[in-house]
Amino acid sequence: MEKLKLRPLDDRIVLSPLEAPKQTPGGIMLPDTAAEKDIRKGEVLATGPGYILKDGKRAEMPVKVGEIILYQQYAATTVEVDGDELAIIRQGDILAVCEGVVEENPARVTMEEEFIQDVEAVKDELPV
Hints:
The chain is mainly beta and 128 residues long. The protein is built from 1 helix and 6 strands. A hairpin with a 2-residue loop joins strand 4 and strand 5 (84-90). The longest helix has 12 residues, at 111-122.
């Protein structure tokens, strides 16, 4: 059976919503009610040609297929296609484009670690 393909019109974008994490980095399990509901992350699957400007030309779409974006969940129209849940949004509902991964700097010291280092450095001088 051939898969159904969607071709968005004007300034619409078809997304594959990405799941919100169910667990914090510290291992705490989050219930559905605690998850951030208003802003979602999704992968762009298809874009329309852009909306028509007053001069008759089309506006350029700010995202490309394969990019990861943040969008307003309640602005999305959710559809199921071939068993996959997809979201369709308008260009104006895009909040941001995720442009790469921020790598942790191993040399970075947190405030807590810095405090512990300071205490260790002066612990012999502290009155007991």
